[in-house]
Amino acid sequence: MASPQVLVVAGTHGNEVNAPWLLEQWKRTPALIDGDGLEVVPVIGNPAARAEGRRYLDSDLNRSFRPDLLAQVATSDHVTADSPLAGIDREMIRAHNLLTRYGPEGAEPCVAALDLHSTTAAMGSSLVVYGRRPADLALAAAVQQRLGLPVYLHEGDPDQQGFLVERWPCGLVIEIGPVPQMVLDASVVERTRLTLQACLAALAAAAKGRLDCPSALVVHRHLGSLDLPLDAQGCPDACLHPLRQGCDWQPLRFGDPLFLRSDGTVVAYEGPDGRVPVFINEAAYREKGIALSLTEREVWRLDRSSSDHLQALLANS
User: Fold this and answer.
1) Can you give the pTM of this predicted structure?
2) At 73, is the secondary structure helix, strand, or coil?
3) H helix or E strand, kind and range, residue 201
């Protein structure tokens, strides 16, 4: 029986350079990462944006996998075009082409997708899960057990949809930071490698029916996002307070300083105690009106069905 195919995507954002560099080194030195019997398919997500050192050309590729956007491309006569035509931008075309080739019904179908990212926020090494699919939760729990990484669970946000990994039967995002955009950092590369290796090891164990999945998963569940205070013209009227910078994963208490105005006025946090901020001052989120996102730490019990679901998914691929 053929080994399950696992898609590993780097450079979904063209100005995140560490994961693409890792994939290039892996190609030169296959022993760098052990696929453990899996058929791993490494892909640069947005090579055109990467060539220009930009996050994207027309729109965020990691928001272009919405079913309605993919349907627009599928019904267009210009799905192979390299420039916007009839309202179909280049990232929408790229999303469609990636799914057509590597999606579960594609020409080279992959059962799982690992999307490698870096962030300017002080997130350390972390995992991101979108929604509550059992296979995703089992994979995240297995990796969390191996490496102790925090898991950010993103759901229920109508303003942020269309993520790449949602279109594969199993998907997980690796986020490594902090690192400035367009800066190659050896420690970020190594942490990406170690986390990717742990993900592949967990998937390989699942494919062999030997997944050691814990009975609980610690998640930080997305509650919503906060923007900087804005003036009447819609421009930032305050910056992040210096005591908040670099404090991702650290719980807030009512009254903690959050933003700082130019006259020295402090804008305090006024929500419930214990909310945990993530992606604080992420550079790419300025255009999205996000200064930080708030989460709630929860411990979820996992029964055997989650790991069984992931193992069955890989065994039947």
Assistant:
1) 0.95
2) helix
3) helix 186-207
